Structures are given as structure tokens and as C-alpha cells.
Amino acid sequence: MAPFYPLYIRRSDGRAVTGEKKKESNEPTPEQLNQKPDAKGICDYYRLIEDDEPKNVDWRRKLGGMLLRELAQSGEHQHKAAILAHLPTNYRLFEHIKSRTHDGDPQSKRASKNHAGGGHDRQDAYLYGHPLGRKKRFRSPADFFPHLYWLATDKTGDPGNCTCKICCPEEFQEEKTAVKRDATTPTPGPSQAATPAQSPANPRSGRRSPSVMIPRVNSTPAQHSSTQERPVSQPAPAQRPAPQTQPPNPPQPLQQHRPTPLPVLPFADFQLDMRWNHLLFRPGEVVWHSRGDAWGLGVVIRRYLSETPNRGVERNYIIQPLSNPIEQLRPVHHSEERLLRPWLAWSPPPLTNEVLQNRPDVSFSNVDWQAVLNGQFGQGNAEVDGSILAAKAIDVSFTLHHLLNGTTRTNPQFEERHWGGIFLGAEKIWVGEPVRVRLDAPVSHPVLVILDIVERVELGRPNPRSSIHVVGDLYTFMTTQPPPNSVMPPVDHLPTRMANDLILRNRCSVPAGRLSAWKLLKPHLALSLDSIRGRWYESSILLPMIQPEAEFNEARRRGTIDDVDPWLNGRGDSSGQPRVAGVRQPERRDALGRAVPDGTRIHDGLDPMSPAELASLTGVVPPSLAQAQPQPQGQPPAGFEGAAFGEMDVDMREFMNLDNDFTNLPPAGGANGAMGWG
């Protein structure tokens, strides 16, 4: 890992003691520092985080990275990894811990190891030291950064020039906003509340100016495969556009933008899906899956981890095949991710029934499937055609999920609802992760990191109408020739999966003279649903799965690992409707309709299946699972201490850890995923 360059803050306004008449320590109260459990056995206390502890180091790394990016916007230092040598004088970091005692029960302690809070019910860090006293504390590095920037750059030392939330509360910032908010611009949701400092060029500008919607034009639908072979045995590769190149004069932002702090949701599946190289496919998603001599279409209804006989970690998926409403199929079990593909990785072939194929108005819902099975429409495979039409119908549907606490009333006629995620077509998408987007501007591989999903509901009607848009930071993927002895670009502002993928790809390309980075083009950009092409996938993980092996190995040898985006379709391409929001379904199960059997359930979480349950569901028990014992969710198998993970061993508890620490980067490929990178 590249060395961290220390940054020193020469000035500080921190106070160890505050108050004029009544002096008090600028830290948690003695009662809050008391670690003794109460009568119910609950420990609720604060403790000082020393300089050498990981959380203190993490704060100083993030603050150092933000400060260096702000002070060295160009030149030799802009890509260096920086760290504050120490926090400003009299600023101290405390950790609020709340947990239940375990009365010496080791099993209880072990059960909490996978908790995101490190085994506690809550474990938050706060920075004390602001001269206004202990009640004015900073909750995150992003909160403190505007104050740190003021300390480092304002020669006058006037606190009135600081734009942090303590020195300049939001109501005061609103009065000083130079640009009035456009009434037609979507209002940022609660996930955007904690934003970094404003541009140094205008430190007192207050909140950011409203986002500008990029105009849209119709795009050309992707072409279908013309193969006449059995459709699911030979799905066509995704329609690959011409290689994208950086335009000669790419659009430049009007000011130097800063990344927005990423939202974190308190849902277990969110934590799982944000992890690097953990489980590629998600419950409720439509995927291609291997059926031996052919490929079929199905929906992931369950996933879990298990131990293999050779002490490895196996990723298990239960796939419910899609079909017509009359010929329903039993679920299928897959224990290797290489036997699955995203729906958007291949273009579906033509229908096997020529009559149905030549009718432009045909859809899954308007076909007389009994007549098709009786041969009234000629020859064809109704099972295959049913799966293709069902997948196309799902592709133009959407379902919002995980309504967040944050509904706001903009005026008596409208209210805004904020959602944690959306099933968009075949895929499940969360707030806080990147998506591939369509733009009219000539931007290379545009990616939007979603900060908020906003539904605007019109009130006062029997059937209220609503509109939905996403708000996020827009990035473009850029590759340059690195100068001698250059260091990797900072990645701590990116989602974990994007950061790790960039690190791994640069490890391969930098020796060949190519340095890649994600460049922020515009923060808080609002886009409609029809601008989203689909999930963003790691090139380092998905390319080895869908690209010919010889082609990938040759590209890796040359150090030119390209982006996986050109290999993927966009949502709606297969049905010729790439620029529609689609049909809203209240639940994901409703989007699947009659293409799956009645009673089909989509299971969240990682609850494993016993061999008996698996046999009852699929009719087949793999030998490896027949010998393994199922484990409770979040627990390592009994006596299990390590598992093969690509080219290195990891503890099962580490594999289940949800802390998303991308500093310890394993080789790509995982337990049974794509090929490993040496």
C-alpha cells in the first residue's frame, strides 16, 4: 500500500475547558465516562480513542485525504495518500459504546462478532474540542472537515469565516445562500444532510446551488441476436457498442466539486451487498443460469454460505426458473457463481415460435399459453418462450423497497418520500451504490453513486400521482499516463466496491503505464429512472466471467483491463424500451407474476438450507452439502478456522464481517467466483 504523507495543522481553536463562570471539561461528563453496567446489565458509556487506535487513524486518514485534495487540486501532490499527523490541539475523539453484558457466556459474545458495531448495540465516534463546549461535537470526518479547512487556510482566524455546521448553522447558511433554489429542482433527501465544506473559491456560499437536470433524447434500441439455434442454449452476448473514448473537450465542472458522504442504511442485506467480492447476485434478481447443455432464465429466491468438505466457503444460490404459467419448474441449486450471469450480460435470442416472434404486440400477459402448448400457433418451445417474455416484462418494471424515515411535506399539495432501494428491471439497487447511466453529454462510462431515491407524491386526489427520481454524484472513468513514482489516487470517498476494483485494476495497469481514476463531474445530480442503464459491476470480477478467457488473459498481460460496461446491455434494451420508467409493481413478487409458481417466496438474509430442505425444494442434494452441517446465520461452522478465498486464507467470521474495510484487499475471484488475479 502506498505510504501516507503526514499533514500538520499548525493552528487550533480547540479548548480542553470551556465556560466563563462555570468551568467544565470539554468532553463527555463523568457520568457518561462511567463504564459500570446498570441494574439491567446494560453498559452505556464513552471512552477516549487514543491516537494509535484504528478508528482514530481512520478519521485522520479521511481528513488528511480531503484536505490534500482541497489544497493540491493539481500538481504532483494531488494523488498522494495523506493523513493528519495528529488532530488539532485539544480536539479529542471519544467513542460512545452501548452494549449488554454477556455474564461470561462465550457463545453470546461470539454471536455478536459480526455486528457492524464491533459486537456492541451501538458504537459511534464523536470529536470534542470546539470552543462552544461539549454539546457542540462533530459526528463524522465530513462534519469536521469544513472546520479543519478553515483552521488550515483562514489567515485571519475569524470564526465567522468558518462554514461548518457548528460555527455556521443551517438556518444561517440559508440566509447567506447566493443562489436561490429553483422551485422545479428536486430537494435533496435526508441521506444528503451531512455534506463537506463548500468550494474554497467561495467559502461562505452556504449550501450548494440546485442540481441541473441533463436533457434526454431517445437512444437507439439494442439489436437482438439473429441466431436460429435453441434460444437458451445460445444466448447472444450483450450488444457491444463501439469502444468509448474520452471526448477531445470533455465538459468541465464550473467549480471544484467534493464527493458527498455516502449514506449507510441499517439493513443486513444492504451491508452484504455493499461488500467487496462477497455475493454477486441478490435475492429477487433475474439471472441467466446454467442448465448443463443450455442456459436458462430464472430469479434468485435465496442465497447463503456453507462450508465445503475441503474447508472452503461455498456460495449457494437457489434459482426459480421462469416459464409460462402452465409448465412450472422446480427450483435449481447452484453452488458456483460462474454458472450464473447477470440478465444484462446477454441479449435474449428470438422466440422459438415464429408466429409469436413475428407479432410485435406479443407479451407474456397477452399470450394464450394453452393454445401455444396445443400447437395452435405452430412449432416452438413454450417453456423457453415463456421465460424470455417473462424476463422482458420484468425488465420494464420497478418496485421501490425499504421506505426510510424521512417523508417531508414540500407544500400542501406534495410530499416527498425517501426510499432505501429499488428493484429496477432485473436488478436490485440500493442507495449508496453506483449505477450505470445514460447521458446526452459525451462522458466516458458515466456512473452515478446514488445518494437518495425520492418519490414526489401529489396529494388531494383519489389516486395520488407520483414521480420518482434519483439524486447522486456523477463520475466518469478516466485513464492517464502516470508520472514517474506516482502513487495510487485516493479512494476513501468511493463506495467500497468501486474503490477495491480501482485498486486492483491499477495494480495491473500502472506497471504498463496506465493510471485510472474515477473523476467527480457533478455532485447532487438528479436523474429520472429511465436514465439508469443498470447496476454497476466490478470489471475485475465480472470480466473474467463473461469475457473469453484467452482475451481476458491477454488484456491482463498487457495491463489494459478495460471497463466491463461495453459488454453489458442497458435496462429496456432487450424489449426496445430503454427510455421508459416502466410499470410500477407494489412488491417484487408481483413483478414476477405467473412466470413463477404460486407460493414462491424471496428470502432475504443468509439463512442456510439443510440437506433435507434442499432435497424437498429441488429434488437433488449435492454430495458436498449432504456431508456439511448447516450453521446458524452469521456463525462459522463448528471447528472451522479458515477458508480458501482466491489465493489467500480468510476466517469465515472475516468473510461474514460487514465493516467493509477495503485496506485489506484479497485477490479477485473469491471462494468460487471469477478467476483470481495473482
From TrEMBL:
<dbReference type="Pfam" id="PF16761">
    <property type="entry name" value="Clr2_transil"/>
</dbReference>
<dbReference type="InterPro" id="IPR018839">
    <property type="entry name" value="Tscrpt-silencing_Clr2_C"/>
</dbReference>
<feature type="region of interest" description="Disordered">
    <location>
        <begin position="99"/>
        <end position="127"/>
    </location>
</feature>
<feature type="region of interest" description="Disordered">
    <location>
        <begin position="15"/>
        <end position="37"/>
    </location>
</feature>
<feature type="region of interest" description="Disordered">
    <location>
        <begin position="178"/>
        <end position="262"/>
    </location>
</feature>
<feature type="region of interest" description="Disordered">
    <location>
        <begin position="563"/>
        <end position="603"/>
    </location>
</feature>
<feature type="compositionally biased region" description="Basic and acidic residues">
    <location>
        <begin position="99"/>
        <end position="108"/>
    </location>
</feature>
<feature type="domain" description="Cryptic loci regulator 2 N-terminal">
    <location>
        <begin position="83"/>
        <end position="167"/>
    </location>
</feature>
<protein>
    <submittedName>
        <fullName>Transcription-silencing protein Clr2-domain-containing protein</fullName>
    </submittedName>
</protein>
<feature type="compositionally biased region" description="Low complexity">
    <location>
        <begin position="626"/>
        <end position="643"/>
    </location>
</feature>
<feature type="compositionally biased region" description="Pro residues">
    <location>
        <begin position="238"/>
        <end position="253"/>
    </location>
</feature>
<dbReference type="InterPro" id="IPR038986">
    <property type="entry name" value="Clr2"/>
</dbReference>
<feature type="region of interest" description="Disordered">
    <location>
        <begin position="624"/>
        <end position="643"/>
    </location>
</feature>
<dbReference type="InterPro" id="IPR031915">
    <property type="entry name" value="Clr2_N"/>
</dbReference>
<feature type="compositionally biased region" description="Basic and acidic residues">
    <location>
        <begin position="15"/>
        <end position="26"/>
    </location>
</feature>
<feature type="compositionally biased region" description="Low complexity">
    <location>
        <begin position="184"/>
        <end position="201"/>
    </location>
</feature>
<feature type="domain" description="Cryptic loci regulator 2 C-terminal">
    <location>
        <begin position="418"/>
        <end position="538"/>
    </location>
</feature>
<dbReference type="Pfam" id="PF10383">
    <property type="entry name" value="Clr2"/>
</dbReference>
<feature type="compositionally biased region" description="Polar residues">
    <location>
        <begin position="217"/>
        <end position="229"/>
    </location>
</feature>
